[in-house]
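Hello,

Our lab assistant flagged a job as stuck in the queue for most of the afternoon. It eventually completed. Since we weren't sure the result was trustworthy after the delay, we are filing this so someone can double-check. Below is the sequence as submitted and the structure that was eventually returned. Let us know if re-running is recommended.
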Amino acid sequence: MSYNKNNLTNLTSQLIKVPGLASDSSTILNSRTSASGGEFYELEPGEVLDFIETDSDLQKLPEELKTDQSYIGAIQVRPLYSGKDVRKEDCPFARPLSVNEKFYPAIGEIVILVEYVKGLYYKDIINIDGNINNNAQPDISINKLTSDTSQTKNYKKNTPPQKSNNKTKLGKVLIDKNDKVKPLQPHEGNYILEGKFGNSIRFGSNKNNEPHIKIRNGQATENDSKPALTYIEEDINKDKNSIWLIENDTVAFIPDTKEAPKNTVEYKGNQILINSDKIVFNSKVNELAFFGKKNIGFSTDGEFCINATKDIIINSKANIKTISTSETNIKAGTRTVIDSPKVLIGSNGSSEPLVLGNKWKAYMTELLNAIIAHIHKSGSGPTDMPLNDPKFSALIAKLDTILSKKCTTE
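-- returned structure --
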């Protein structure tokens, strides 16, 4: 909204039919001298009265706009100068100025208003008291009641509103001002985007002007109890969810497992760090690939599970080691094959060879049959076969039961 500082008279015609600004200047908060001699402002602050969030909220709009989906995200607003003391039902609606970058305010916050070709728009929330969660100033646009109806030139001339005696709700979610959420510490040259709930993106750098991007969703719990307007830094270890993109710097990242992955070096150089209570990677159609020029490490205090519908293939040009301080179990549905030029069981120093079962059976069968058939010379001639030869025959019958039904070797 534009206004004249001397008489605070609304200088525009119908809101939806305004052809453009009085000046072609695009400078924010630009002012010039009007024809009436007063200081003329192209932009005007306004108090947010309501928020159009859903299709049902469109019913709050004037009749001709009730089906206009472009008003989702619009606000009802009372201009602080040209609309002071106008009743809420007579106040206009403004849409976000940018289609790509939008900051939705809380009820009671002060935004900047501007009129362009097709109506009234809002941009930026004015930093009244520096609170990240909200800067609401409820009823600031009606704190000076007046009976001068000339002030409401482009609005219905009705009885001025009365200042609310009740605590103003800031919206459906923002019920009250939340001092737990703290602003981020600014640094020279940084560009910071901060939400109202402890979420932020910082485009910054280190002390050597090497860039970094820090994305945070949920500040560290220890910051909740700090005084309002305490400026805080992001903390990769304590913030609830973090993604840091770092160039040529060292991050004091602390893994939460009891043991860090083996061969893990310092967290330094060009790196991306992700930290959260839970991280899920899901590829809906194609591959999920991990590549590491040097080491790849996994560490967990719980189970490490790999499930595959098809083969699991592990290839290494060096050693493959499986180490357990307890049991190591290998279970297969059909067979387990170990194929190597040399297989050691027991330790790296094992030297005793394994016995081949079938050859051992054949040897023992031959041996036992020889025992059964053996005879001795005596003075009266050859002796008969041993009296206990049935026992030897029984031992031969048991040889098959000694052979493993699961394990075979070459």
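-- support follow-up --
The delay was a queue issue, not a problem with the job. The result is valid. The radius of gyration is 41 Å. The chain is about 10% helix and 20% strand.
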